[in-house]
Each structure stands twice: as C-alpha cells, then as structure tokens.
C-alpha cells in the first residue's frame, strides 16, 4: 500500500508553495526580450508563447480546483484565464498566475481532503503537481532559448518521487501507461549524487512504486534494470527531457524492459 504523504520518500521536506513562486519567477526572467515564436524542442509543435500559456493556465486551473474544494473529477477545465492579447503582457500574466495560486494556497488547508487524479487525495496534491509542471516547463523555456538550466537537488528528488508515485493513476490522459505490465519485473532509478533510490515493480495487473523503493537510498533489492544519474538528470529523464542513451545516464540490465518503460511512460 502506498502512503498518501506528499513527501513520502523525500529525504528533505519541500515547501511546494514557496518553490512554485520561485520557479515561476525564474520562468518569467527567461522571457525578457524573448521571441514568442521560438520553438520549444522538448514540447514538439509548441512555441514559447504556447509554453507560457500552458504553464499559467495550469496554475490558474489548479487554483480554481482548490477554491472549489472539488470532491469529484471536474466536468470542465474552463477557467477565466485573463490571458493578454499581446505577447508583451505574457510575462506579467505568468507572474500573476503564481499570485493567483498563492491566494488559493493561503485559503486552503493542505490537509483538506480533496479529489485528485493521483494517489494523494488532499489539497496538497495540487501544490506538489503544480510545482513540477512549472519547474519542468521553466527548464523547457531555458533550453529553447539557449540559457543554462539548474535544478535544486532537493526539488529534483521530490519530483522523481512525485512522478513515479502518481504515474499509475495517469491513464485518463496518458493511456499508454496501461501497457506497463510485466511478470514481476523491476526497474530501479538511482541518484548518483546522494539520497534517491526508487524501485518500480511491473506486475501482470499493473505497476507501481515498490514499498522497498525509498529515496533515502536504503533499498538494496536487485532490479532487472537500473538507471542511474544525478537527481536532476533523473527528473528530466522521467519527463522525457533527457534520453536514456545520454552520457549523463548509466543503464544496466534488461534493455527491453527499459524500452517498454520509456515507450509508455510519457506524461
């Protein structure tokens, strides 16, 4: 049974609300003098303008869910975006989106029971999810613009865990996860720069983060396949921003199992 604690595997607790504000500010800073038509290679078919619209829209939609204290899947994703007509207003609009989120957080107890599509059925789920939507797309923007990117290690560890613990519940918008089945096959994701060790088990009826997979690094069970990298590289790897064949990633074990995973775990 997987715990619903939002920092279940995190070696260091994360203030998701504060991190959203900081990551959004970094994203906004990348937009100065940027061309809205810049292609975003990590989001095929998207421009920088599309990326900003998506990130701010997600923040505002999640905020609306928090204000509504939703107890069931919402029937619509419509929300008043107040999107400016011109690109020169997008940076301020994205900053305001984080402010809208901060207002929703201030008005909502993170322990409040709420519907969520993932494992953690509390308001805190939405703050954690919003953080990694924002962080990954901030990196997308920086890379599209040829700017250097860095990811705080504590956030990266929490982000890998957040991805892996919620992925089994993502079939409604990531249907390929239904293909992640196997006769008790395991994949380990192991950070090379400190704590961070996750064991994913594929079963005939599904998959999930194994109870022995723990970001504290104490798990010792041998896996059928292992992927190693810094916590930041692992975060970008699970989100498809780093290829598993990249030099920053080490792989051992069953390559067919890894192919099955990476072909079907897109989020």
* CATH C-level name of the largest domain: Mainly Alpha
What is the N-to-C order of secondary-structure elements (H for helix, E for strand)?
Answer: HHHHHEEEEHEH
CATH superfamily of the largest domain, please? dinb family like domain
Count of folded domains: 2
User: What topology, given as strand order, has the largest sheet?
Assistant: 3-2-1-4-5
Question: CA-to-CA gap between the ends?
Answer: 23 Å
| Number of H/I helices | 7
Oligomer: single chain
Shape estimate: globular
Q: How would you classify the helix and strand content by structural class?
A: alpha+beta
* Name of the CATH architecture of the largest domain: Up-down Bundle
- Total strands: the figure is 5
- Give the % helix: 25-40%
Written overview of the protein:
The protein is α+β, with helices and mostly antiparallel strands. It has two domains: 16-150, dinb family like domain (Four Helix Bundle (Hemerythrin (Met), subunit A), Up-down Bundle), CATH 1.20.120.450; 175-264, 2-Layer Sandwich (Nonspecific Lipid-transfer Protein, Chain A). The protein contains seven helices and five strands; from the N terminus they run αααααββββαβα. It has helices spanning 16-30, 48-68, 90-106, 124-144, 153-166, 231-238, 255-264; strands at 185-191, 197-203, 206-209, 225-229, 250-253. Strands 3-2-1-4-5 form a five-stranded mixed sheet. β1 (185-191) and β2 form a beta hairpin. The protein is globular.
